[in-house]
Amino acid sequence: MRKRELLRKPVKDIEPTGSIEELITAMGKAGGFTAKKVAEGVEILERMERVECTKFLSFPAALMATGTRGVLRTMVQKKMVDVVITTCGTVDHDLARTWRTYYHGSFEMDDVALHRLGVNRLGNVLIPNESYGIVLEKRVQPILQELWDSQKRSMSTCELLWEFGRRVDSHKSFLWWCWKNRIPVFIPAIFDGSFGYQLWSFWQDHRSFRIDEFKDEADLADIVYTAKSTGALIIGGGVSKHHTIWWNQFREGLDYAVYITTAPEWDGSLSGARMREGISWGKVREQADQVTIEGDASVLLPLMVSALQQRLARKVKRAGAKAHPSRHR
Length: 329
Hints:
The protein has 14 helices and eleven strands. It has helices at 3-6, 20-29, 34-50, 69-77, 88-99, 111-117, 133-149, 157-168, 174-180, 194-205, 213-226, 238-248, 275-281, 297-323, and strands spanning 54-58, 83-85, 103-104, 119-122, 125-128, 154-155, 185-186, 210-211, 230-235, 254-261, 284-294.
């Protein structure tokens, strides 16, 4: 490689004015570490919107306990994704926050004192027992009984969550928008959470009740095998990340991938594994547009999705102007 070829793109200063989209664009021109990766991530997400691409959204449950839930909800509300793969706690927190309230706390609080007060701490979010396990048991069991009485006794996780989303009937609910827009939600570890416990508890007295996880896998197979191209916005590791990339290996890998993580690479965990590692497994294509962004998704995701929305809205406006030039004379 020649020196002239290396030194083609100068570093430019960020001028902190204008919209979020303009800020993200400036971050891309600034060079400088994670800022550039964030801009690259938005560009990849935008490319996924331009082509015929089946878009996966993968994330763990903790974000649902925070205000970032609103960003995730917006993505399904505006049909920015086609498939969701997540963990059981997503259902817990989405339902619980639809029916009750979570509160601000801090990382430094006395956990023994909180336990004695019946208050659970998730990072710097406080979740009283009455806003979590108690309300879930009170509200989930009657819905399960209603489904049972209507002869719905064997369902995939996706079918079950659409039934709950429909019955929640709240525009604040992530699940409600998934049901409304027919976006499938897959939870491979459906029993790993309070909602999963409610399913087990219901089964104690209804032994013919079934969660058909094989149906989920068949549906996922149909999605990946028929997709012209696939892309994923993956937040954090664990089962949701792995299930996303696992299924995409059967079509020779993701074509587009944006990964947000706080985990180090050197511990060998899936959370720490960069997107490039997935290439060696055939879970990400060799020529894929992919980036790993190190940082807290509760900060990065609102910025990235806001910038993406602004770019897409601008393109729609430009397309409208070209289609009706007389309106702008």
